[in-house]
Design brief:
With 278 residues, the chain is α/β, with parallel strands linked by helices. It is built from 11 helices and 10 strands. The chain has helices at 18-25, 27-37, 49-66, 81-88, 94-115, 128-138, 161-170, 193-201, 224-230, 238-247, 261-269; strands spanning 3-8, 74-77, 118-124, 142-148, 151-157, 174-177, 212-214, 219-220, 250-255, 274-277. It is globular, with a radius of gyration of 18 Å.
Length: 278
């Protein structure tokens, strides 16, 4: 068995059965989430990021617990998943991580509503990564998620998405507008940054037990507070993050959270690696 990387998924990975796992494996964490959110977030994961993010965070830590808390040689998280990875690696305490996730979800939901007209479109197919920058620039959008060579997400004004989607289809790509409440990972999230950055200043950050890669830089975290705050606006460089872990020796990737989004992306990005789901 080669070097192992532990992956924590982000929003969009929720599954109907994930609450059952949390209730069975980490009932204490479920109780904490209900207290911090103000209600059970699991029945409302489709109602907004303010519910989906804490639910996925808890389900990811429960999945990690169910696997025996593997540490691997590297950890990484996709957007929201970075907070789960930092908790698992000992850089953030679990209560601080939960509070930050709940705040992050609320701020992103609120910023999306305040900015208005924000949305996201996924570009799928061979050549998506090669065409993404030009399509984004031509339509006033931002590259929000560089997920794999065949999957890129653009973010920005919802009114600009149909033209970008039409242009993508002319290039032979599929284009799917996503059911989200805002233009995440774009400048339209700017209103969320100050309060989140202030909250980050109030928590203790410790040296992680294993390197945790930031999807903002595709390198191990150098400044956790700065990179987490930047992550609200910056693209998720997931394809580069996976390639970097593989370059550093990772041959086995374990996705601990709900769903199989990240192992699916890894399969499209890397060859000759072992992929495992919780």
């Amino acid at each position: 068995m080669g070097t192992t990387a532990i992956l924590f998924p982000g929003q969009g990975s929720q599954t109907p059965e994930m609450r059952d796992l949390v209730a069975e494996v980490r009932p204490d964490l479920l109780e904490q989430a209900v207290a911090v959110v103000g209600e059970d977030p699991f029945p409302r994961t489709e109602d907004g990021t303010n519910f989906a993010q804490p639910a996925i965070f808890c389900a990811s830590l429960a999945g990690w617990e169910a696997l025996g808390r593997p540490s691997g040689e590297f950890m990484a998280g996709h957007s929201l998943g970075e907070l789960g990875a930092l908790v698992a690696a000992g850089s953030l305490s679990e209560p601080d991580g939960l509070r930050l996730v709940v705040l992050r979800g609320r701020l992103m939901q609120r910023s999306g509503a305040q900015a208005g007209d924000g949305g996201m479109v996924a570009l799928l197919g061979a050549g998506a990564a090669e065409h993404a920058d030009a399509l984004a620039e031509a339509h006033g959008l931002a590259v929000a998620n560089d997920n794999s060579p065949q999957q890129i997400v653009l973010s920005g004004a919802r009114s600009s998405l149909p033209a970008a989607a039409a242009a993508a289809k002319e290039l032979g790509l599929r284009a799917i507008e996503l059911p989200v409440s805002g233009a995440f990972h774009s400048p339209m999230m700017a209103a969320a940054v100050p309060e989140f950055a202030a909250a980050l200043e109030q928590v203790e950050i410790r040296e992680p037990w294993v390197p945790v890669l930031s999807a903002v830089t595709a390198q191990p975290f150098d400044d956790v507070r700065r990179r987490l705050a930047e992550g609200l606006l910056s693209p998720v460089r997931w394809r580069e993050t996976m390639l970097e872990m593989h370059r550093l020796g990772a041959e086995r990737f374990i996705e601990v959270g709900p769903g199989r989004v990240l192992t699916g992306l890894a399969k499209r990005t890397l060859s000759d690696v072992e992929l495992v789901n919780a």
